[in-house]
């Protein structure tokens, strides 16, 4: 049993199905990337960084270009193939594996869970395993950085099953989602309609409230050090759609 609420979906589905459009659909913003690299480089302070759920290298490659020793982990072969096609991808040590229990040689000054990777796991137990695994790979006094979306209460309460993302001359992009509020799980599809046919890109996982993340991190022997609304270190507050949270290992 995969634990996901979407039939036929497992840990590799999201990456393998979305790899062909990933860098187009989620094109990195240069300014935001530069800000993230600056924050992470400061936290790493010349040390090593482990990027769990590295994707196509949106942060791992720029970090390596900034002379940070980076190891990236992802479970999707299709995503990692896209990663390896990019310039300077050879500067990052890439490992295929499950972030819940992957064992990487050595220790790290920073472990990164970027782009809502943690919400892509199906259960709270799975998410907790990732946090504990991150702790095992950190030096004493090292930090875990979690970049995560804030659940939208309006979507969850109303169900908002269908959203219109964009309309162009040759395509329409829709989003469909269902939520299970008790387990905090979701199943969604990006639907691309063209005259030539329909493409669907599924995602499934479990959303996490910021306060719940703090509790989970605390049980994995982390203390919350900072939380911002973005990589610019904008103060976090009501109405924020995402957060960047920095947890320090508890000595």
CATH architectural label of the largest domain: 3-Layer(aba) Sandwich
Largest sheet: 7 strands, mixed
Strand content: 25-35%
Give the strand order, joined by hyphens, for the main sheet.
Answer: 3-2-1-4-5-11-10
Number of strands: 11
Number of domains: 2
What general form does the structure show? globular
Oligomer: single chain
| Helix fraction by DSSP (H/I, runs of at least 4) | 25-40%
Distance between the termini: 37 Å
CATH superfamily of the largest domain, called what?
Vaccinia Virus protein VP39
Mean pLDDT: 94
Structural class: alpha/beta
Question: Could you walk me through the main structural features you see in this protein, from its secondary elements to its overall organization?
Answer:
By secondary structure, the protein is α/β, with parallel strands linked by helices. It has 2 domains: 13-151 and 208-249, Vaccinia Virus protein VP39 (Rossmann fold, 3-Layer(aba) Sandwich); 153-204, N-terminal domain of TfIIb. It contains 8 helices and 11 strands. The strands form 2 sheets. Strands 3-2-1-4-5-11-10 form a 7-stranded mixed β-sheet, with helices on both faces. A 4-stranded antiparallel β-sheet has the order 6-7-8-9. It is globular and about 55 Å long. The model has no long low-confidence stretch (mean pLDDT 94).
């Amino acid at each position: 049993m995969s634990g996901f609420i979407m039939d036929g979906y497992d840990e590799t589905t999201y990456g393998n199905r979305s790899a062909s459009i990933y860098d187009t659909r989620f094109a990195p913003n240069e300014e935001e990337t530069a800000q993230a690299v600056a924050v992470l480089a400061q936290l790493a302070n010349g040390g090593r960084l482990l990027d769990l759920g590295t994707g196509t290298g949106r942060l791992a490659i720029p970090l390596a270009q900034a002379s940070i020793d980076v190891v990236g982990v992802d479970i999707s072969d299709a995503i990692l193939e896209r990663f390896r096609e990019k310039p300077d991808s050879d500067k990052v040590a890439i490992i295929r594996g499950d972030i819940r229990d992957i064992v990487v040689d050595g220790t790290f000054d920073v472990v990164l869970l970027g782009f809502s990777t943690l919400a892509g796991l199906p259960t709270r137990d799975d998410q907790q395993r990732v946090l504990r695994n991150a702790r095992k790979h950190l030096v004493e006094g090292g930090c875990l950085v979690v970049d995560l979306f804030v659940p939208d209460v309006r979507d969850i309460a109303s169900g908002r099953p269908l959203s219109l993302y964009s309309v162009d001359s040759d395509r329409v992009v829709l989003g469909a989602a269902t939520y299970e509020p008790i387990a905090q799980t979701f199943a969604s599809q990006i639907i691309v309609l063209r005259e030539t046919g329909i493409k669907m890109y599924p995602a499934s996982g479990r959303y996490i409230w910021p306060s719940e993340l703090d509790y989970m991190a605390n049980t994995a022997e982390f203390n919350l050090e900072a939380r911002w609304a973005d990589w610019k270190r904008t103060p976090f507050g009501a109405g924020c759609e995402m957060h960047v949270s920095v947890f320090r290992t508890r000595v």
